[in-house]
Amino acid sequence: MSIKVVLLGAGYVATHLAVGLERLKKRLVEPYGIPLANYKLPYKIEDIEIVGVYDVDNSKVGKSLYEIATQVMGSDYPIPEELKKLKVSRGVHRDSTKGMGFSATGLDDVRGVPEAVDVLVSEWLSLKPDVVVNVITTEYGNSYPSKEVAEEYILSGKSPATHVYAYITAKYASKVGQAAFVNAIPTPVANNDGLLNLLEESGVVVFGDDGATGATPLTADILEHMFQRNRKVEFIVQFNIGGNTDFYALTLEDKNKMKEITKSSMVKDILGYETPTYIKPTGYLEPLGDKKYVAMHLEYISFNGFRDSIYINARINDSPALAGILVDLIRIGKIALDRGVRGTVYPVNAFFMKKPGPNNSRNIAKTRAYYELLRWLGLK
Ligand SMILES: NC(=O)c1ccc[n+]([C@@H]2O[C@H](COP(=O)([O-])OP(=O)(O)OC[C@H]3O[C@@H](n4cnc5c(N)ncnc54)[C@H](O)[C@@H]3O)[C@@H](O)[C@H]2O)c1
After folding, report:
1. How many domains does the chain contain in total?
2. I want to staple 292 with a disulfide (CB 3.0 to 4.6 A). Which of 38, 72, 242, 319 is the partner?
3. Which residues of 105-129 are buried (b: 16+ CB within 10 A; e: fewer)?
């Protein structure tokens, strides 16, 4: 029983996921970094099979994931030969790569959005994915008040690429009965009322938005610690500097704004009050590569008015962190479909996402969300 997966975006995260899965299948590595690896789920890690990869970067389309992985991870890294079979297909562009400085073309650039939708739906009808994972470049996007407005914006070419891909998943699901869409980027899908409604009615399970890795879930858990001990947090500073293309993308203002919204949405939800906060992906420095520098500083008032400070400095491999949680999200996506679930699932999003859908959901500490997730999965 395999779980067939289509990846949107052939970048760092997609590459680490594909390489890691093959190495796990051959038992070359332990499944660390996959939160539920030690639980017995109906699907094993080995059941995941990547059947398609889409990008719009002209230097990637047509290449194999093996060639791309060699560029991303270096030719000294043992890239599994199996990835030679996975060729990158051309996806939908919209303006997702604007300002990135590389040449990109989508099917929509040549044939318009409605035709691009038809082409991908028919490709997916032969690939037969159960789960579609969105890891394209972060792009700016708004929410839609209704499914009619969502459809109108998407088909008239006024939406970001993520929304077109979600729409393609809906069209595909309405033909085959069901599909799951994992939105690991900040562009709103699970938090987008109109689009979510459209997806739900078409038979789609949606997880989103923006995979929670690195400093943001750590901050959430530290805030929970402060809340439980009734320590008054005076301020929080948290920033990341990285040298991968995702960090480069975030130097562009509208893309950074999207991340800021998903990153800072948790503070009041967890503490119960507002506190001055600076939580942003702050900069790009190429030599750091994928191993980003994370700094965090917070100050709080303790018993009898005494003030304490916490400082955290870390270097964290960015893309493997997201790839690890995607292994679970893919398996849970299929489990949700088997259970007949449609629309979004808060207990899944609350643990795995920075901005858990549906819209206006509470952000809780990941340490708490973990047990909610186990309950939902029937593991506790
Ligand atoms: N820990 C993490 O790395 C982490 C955590 C949360 C979210 N994310 C999000 O995951 C996404 C991917 O991160 P990454 O490090 O792999 O970035 P990346 O820049 O290496 O990869 C993104 C890929 O998407 C492609 N792309 C851009 N527009 C596209 C489109 N319209 N259709 C298909 N492909 C398109 C790009 O050409 C590129 O190959 C980013 O949006 C990032 O914000 C990453």
Report:
1. 2
2. 242
3. ebbbeeeebeebbebbbebbeeeeb
Q: Identify the bridge partners of residue 89 per DSSP, sorted by sequence position.
A: 54
Establish whether residue 246 lines the binding site of ligand 1, counting it when its CB lies within 6 angstroms of any ligand atom.
Answer: yes
In a shared domain, residues 295 and 330: no
pLDDT in tens, 162-208: 999 999 999 999 999 999 999 999 999 999 999 999 999 999 999 99
Residues 232 and 364 in one domain: no
- Report the atom number in ligand 1 closest to the C-alpha of 137: 41
In tens, the pLDDT along 279-292 reads 888 899 999 999 99
pLDDT at 204: 98
Q: Identify whether the C-beta of residue 162 lies closer than 8 Å to the C-beta of residue 183.
A: yes
Is residue 12 in contact with ligand 1, taking CB distance under 6 Å? Answer: yes
- 96 CB less than 6 Å from ligand 1? yes
60 and 149 belong to one structural domain: yes
How much of the chain, in percent, has pLDDT values that exceed 70? 98
Q: Which domain holds residue 250?
A: 215-317
CA distances to 116, 167, 207 from 179, rounded to whole Å, are 19, 12, 12
Q: Can you give the CATH number for the domain in which 247 is found? A: 3.30.360.10
Ligand 1 geometric centre to CA of 60 (Å): 13
Query: Is ligand 1 within 6 A of the CB of residue 185?
Result: yes
For the segment 108-145, what is each residue's pLDDT rounded down to a tens digit? 999 999 999 999 999 999 999 999 999 999 999 999 99
Q: Residue 355: CB within 6 Å of ligand 1?
A: no
**Same domain, yes or no, for 62 and 174?**
yes
User: In angstroms, what is the span from residue 13 Cα to ligand 1's centroid?
Assistant: 7
